[in-house]
Model the fold of this input.
Amino acid sequence: MDLELSSLVFDFAQGIMLADKKRPHKMPYSPGIGPHTETETINLVIGELVALYPDRYENYSIQVPYAETRQKCDICLGKADNWEWIIEVKMVRFFGDNGKPADTIITHLLSPYYTDHSALSDCEKLTQSSFLGNKAILIYGYDYDKRSLDPAIDAFEVLAKEKVILGDRITSTFEGLIHPVHKRGRVFAWEVVRKSICEA
Done:
């Protein structure tokens, strides 16, 4: 398969837009992919990518258990026991369906506590796991006129680099979504590698 992380990021953004065009409706919210949960969005996006690029995404698993804990990894691409990519996904959505601020969402990105299952703690969880293969953190989020993703993503990078070796940031945009609040956004991803004892 030899899937580059940059291709996955572009494809994921494309999958969001394709899924949104089908007007998915999560009651009681407005139509569009925006109000869907992280897990629901992953399922919708992967469904689009399998249909669009069957050779590229023919082998994948969602919610794969970690051997060390009861937690599950969001997406594993390739074949079990020798995955090509092991990916934790996090969503950033600063506003709700009604346009009111979602004040606690930053916790899902930056909390240092494992019990909060943040993108930051996921970096360590990935690198310390027994999964074999390339490991990455993927964050997709929505941009708004009143609040950009940039400061939050910058903060994540600063904190994550204290915990793991963080690869270069890869970004792709999505736009033209039908929801009145969640209209556009970006997908970010980084390869993550465990720090050696001398680097920690």
In short: The longest helix spans residues 5-21. The radius of gyration is 16 Å.
